[in-house]
Amino acid sequence: xxxxxxxxxxxxxxxxxxxxxxxxxxxxxxxxxxxxxxxxxxxxxxxxxxxxxxxxxxxxxxxxxxxxxxxxxxxxxxxxxxxxxxxxxxxxxxxxxxxxxxxxxxxxxxxxxxxxxxxxxxxxxxxxxxxxxxxxxxxxxxxxxxxxxxxxxxxxxxxxxxxxxxxxxxxxxxxxxxxxxxxxxxxxxxxxxxxxxxxxxxxxxxxxxxxxxxxxxxxxxxxxxxxxxxxxxxxxxxxxxxxxxxxxxxxxxxxxxxxxxxxxxxxxxxxxxxxxxxx
Length: 279
What we know:
Elements: E1 3-4, H1 7-27, E2 33-39, H2 43-59, E3 62-68, H3 74-85, E4 92-95, H4 105-111, H5 123-131, H6 139-150, E5 159-163, H7 170-179, E6 183-187, H8 194-198, E7 203-206, E8 224-227, E9 231-232, E10 238-239, H9 244-247, E11 253-254, H10 261-278
Parallel strand pairs: 1-11, 2-3, 2-4, 5-6, 5-7, 7-8, 8-11
Antiparallel strand pairs: 9-10
Helix pairs in contact: 1-10, 2-10, 6-7, 6-10
């Protein structure tokens, strides 16, 4: 039976550390401020935004929410971002994705000042990550590194496989594992012999977007398995990209869904906000 990596507990630990840090900044007259922009009425996005607001409140970060109608034009959204870029009381700007179809996500992301890009999605943030310069790290990959480290596992020298190559998770995840001196393979939908590639991994990070896609025959005995996916099945039950019940017997450790990677993403967003204020 594998060990379950408790993302909720580790995220709570990080938020406690940040709470102390925010209190110390407050004594120096520094307030941490986050602006959250939600366009439209997507139910899942609303839940994510509310969770972020609750985390801000707990840590001591002042959050301001802008809830815009789904008919908001791209020009109106960009004008709001420009105003927030020049607002000294706002350290971080977060635009909740996905956006309505008539708004270009890349244009919006690059409109956010790289100094306030607490999601870590800006091309400048991505470039800094790639060349090893200091910058905001994408929250989910950064959270995964903390999950692995704080669970007592070593990345250095280990065979790491990332399944998925998105700009938000797969690519930055590979770079962060490299930064930790892992030996990294990125696999994806066009990878031949995926089972063979995945089963070499000491650390397997799965972000394929397909429910229960990874079964035990993809997993090396004793591997650490990190499941980034989240899906709602019939009956409203949640699952990840990994078939948890099948893989649990084989892995040394595994993240559950929910309660694994998700809470860490929000904790690292809080960390980026605090970092922005310190800068």
